[in-house]
Amino acid sequence: DTENWFCECPGLYSGKLCQLTTCDENPCGNGATCFPKSSQDVVCLCPYGKTGIFCNDAINITEPSFSGTNVFGYTSFLAYSAIPNISFYYEFRLKFQLANHDSAIRDNLIFFTGQKGQGLNGDDFLVLGLWNGSVVYSYNLGSGTATLISQPLDLTLSTHVIHLGRSLRTGWLKVDDHKNKSVTAPGKLVGLNVFSQFYVGGYIEYTPELLPNGSKFENGFLGCIFDIEVRTGKDHQFKPLGTLESHPNAGRSVGQCEDSPCSLIKCKNGGICMESGSTVYCDCPTEWKGAFCTETVSACDPEHNPSHLCRKGATCVPLPDGYACHCPLGTTGTFCEQGMAKLRKVAFQ
Ligand SMILES: [Ca+2]
């Protein structure tokens, strides 16, 4: 019978072909990334400059705060246009504050630009991050990676300062009041040829196989990175990243340092406000759903625990004290679990 088939859908999907997620009717505003939190509710991962449950509220960011990878697997990041004239000389200055836990200094990206080598283009990249309590600065001009590792950070300092640079093959790194360290890149190449955007706080997507060797930091940054400035000549002025008022081209789940988007959200019925940078959502108790936990979970909803027992093909109908199963043709029983014997012979007289 052509109408009596169904697909058993995994958790977040619904529809006859399991083709629907709650993000198909994307309620997120301003180009936010929609993620299906459950089969009924979504989380909106807010783009740069927006916050709130549906990313419809403006947020002014002067000191970006990054929250690493959230529970849905997305990193917070900012992406700026490629920095022009960075090939032979650059200097960067920046400050950062760490979120107050160990994982903030284990293996975390601060910034990255570069690409995996293809054809005549080498594995050129420039990366800065934290590893095992120290600042790590690496670059590859196409003929091998140069790496500088700072002394361990003094974690009693609330704000850390980095000044680093490179002239042709020679790079140097100065962290807080540590001694300046320098290194010379191997091989003969002297130009940094990078074509990607300039990422701060996290990669847009962490796909290790697409990153050049030696540039991988597994986690996004946890804390605030601010006052990033760059110059591409010794006598030039330092300038902020980005073209227009230092605004990035793109970003996700980046908040303002020391601001809490949860302070503006009131989750109802015992829901707990969760935040990750500018992204915010209510984590509802099992019997509630909806953006603010204001709708009850009915006995027929997929997230109801225990789940209803109506067999596939049956329609579950919520009742004040439970639910009932409406059976499709050919089945019967409380849960539509019994087949009805087909009439083999119809006699007319
Ligand atoms: Ca090169």
From TrEMBL:
Keywords: Disulfide bond, EGF-like domain
Pfam families for this protein: EGF, Laminin_G_2
Gene Ontology MF terms in the entry: calcium ion binding
Keyword Disulfide bond attached: yes
Boundaries of every EGF-like domain copy: 19-56, 258-294, 296-337
Disulfide bridge positions per record: C46-C55, C284-C293, C327-C336
Segment forming the signal sequence: none
Keyword Iron: no
Transmembrane segments: none
Domain Laminin G: 67-257
PANTHER family xrefs: EGF-LIKE DOMAIN-CONTAINING PROTEIN (PTHR24033), NOTCH 2 (PTHR24033:SF151)
Protein name: Protein eyes shut homolog
Species: Pelodiscus sinensis (Chinese softshell turtle)
